[in-house]
Amino acid sequence: MRFSTKAIHVGQNPDKTTGAIIPPIYLTSTYVQEAPNQHNGYDYTRAGNPNYTNLEQTLASLEEGAYATVFSSGLGAITALISILKKDDLVLAGNDLYGGTFRLFNNIFSNFGVNLKIIDTQNIQEVENSMKLKPKAIFLETPSNPLLKITDIQTINKIAKKYYVLTFVDNTFATPYFQKPLNLGADAIIHSTTKYIGGHSDIIGGVVITNNEKIKEKIDFARKAIGLNPSPFDCWLISRGIKTLALRMEKHFQNAFKIAKFLESHKKVKKVHYPGLPSHSQHQLAKKQMNGFGGIVSVEFDLTLEQTKKLISNFKLFSLAESLGGVESLVDHPASMTHASISKEEREKNGLKDSLIRFSIGIEDEKDLIEDLCEGIDQIIFSK
Ligand SMILES: Cc1ncc(COP(=O)(O)O)c(C=O)c1O
């Protein structure tokens, strides 16, 4: 079966008792047992629920992985993954990372002795040199949030394997439609399913996908022991959203590509970060490991910081909001919103300027989106 067929059919068997084509929502906390521990595979929803199982089957098949475990959020999925590490373990991560992931490591896991070291994962030599520090895992986000940096998943996996280091990839921006990190050697993938996978800005969710049975056992245990389970209703909504993932990703990509090109040629734009543009410093690598470049475009305008802040509240179709990956277009100011938990010093060291704006390009008509951008920018230039 191919991608869009799997998105519709895997994990979506009609209900056996009624014939309902759509599996029902199992809003239950517990399950009746015939005798102690004699049940139909489910005993308590914190540990398992048919709506989790359905979604896990779909997600594992789309990533071409063996196992998936769904969580209450993307950060819940990362929490489960990192909980398999121990005190004094070191994790390496790239220098452009979702702010909440950074905060989770630095404000929570560091208190339990799991340490994070930020390195430049674009620099293969630096990755190889960092192996001397004997890390237990390397956490890659590619394309990264918000600078759309691209990391060479396959090369880093080869280095990591030599040193018995686990590789975890956050595949939220690319989705399995454009990139399959397990096939490039990753040990586990996480997604914030809140984003493209759900696709409709109506749920928060996460998933870990792996081919490694031991990792699967440990993260299932973490979900149950820490209480990182999602709601069955949210999983049902994600299962519904995922059916159009292929169509949506095509349109996000088409729109984003046109908008990135348009903005690159605009006289009030200093720099456009989009891996699909030949001007992107890792465009060739992006072409090698991705089948398309996704729907996020980050931009530095040739405006003062005050004008930039005014601009982001000026659009009619691009709503000013955190998050990304929904059908509707959003605009975000990373320095004061999604990445505010990273210090200004750390942000600037890694190239994240206060003037950067991140656009999540939706699936509206691209002409309307471009008109909205033009009008918003013109209002700023011509206002006194
Ligand atoms: C790349 C990336 N990973 C993980 C997360 C966290 O996901 P969630 O908000 O579902 O916890 C986000 C959220 O924005 C993200 O952008």
Secondary structure topology:
Blueprint: H1 3-9, H2 50-62, E1 67-71, H3 74-82, E2 90-94, H4 99-108, E3 115-119, H5 124-130, E4 137-141, H6 153-162, E5 166-170, H7 175-178, E6 188-192, E7 206-210, H8 213-227, H9 232-242, H10 245-264, E8 269-273, H11 283-289, E9 296-301, H12 305-312, E10 319-320, E11 330-332, H13 344-349, E12 356-360, H14 366-382
Parallel strand pairs: 2-3, 2-4, 4-5, 5-6, 10-11
Antiparallel strand pairs: 1-7, 6-7, 8-9, 9-12, 11-12
Helix pairs in contact: 1-2, 2-9, 3-8, 12-14
The chain binds pyridoxal-5'-phosphate.
Pyridoxal-5'-phosphate binds at residues 73-75, 98, 100-101, 141, 145, 170, 172-173, 192, 194, 204, 206.
State the gist of this model:
The protein is an alpha/beta fold.
Beta-strand segment tally: 12
Determine the N-to-C terminus distance. 58 Å
Largest sheet: 7 strands, mixed
| Uncertain runs | none
Element pattern in H and E: HHEHEHEHEHEHEEHHHEHEHEEHEH
Write structural notes for this entry.
The structure is a single chain. The chain is of the alpha/beta class. The protein is 38% helix and 15% strand. The chain has a 7-stranded mixed β-sheet with strand order 1-7-6-5-4-2-3, with helices on both faces. A 5-stranded mixed β-sheet has the order 8-9-12-11-10, covered by helices on one side. Strand 5, helix 7 and strand 6 form a beta-alpha-beta unit. The site of pyridoxal-5'-phosphate has 15 residues, from helix 3 and helix 4.
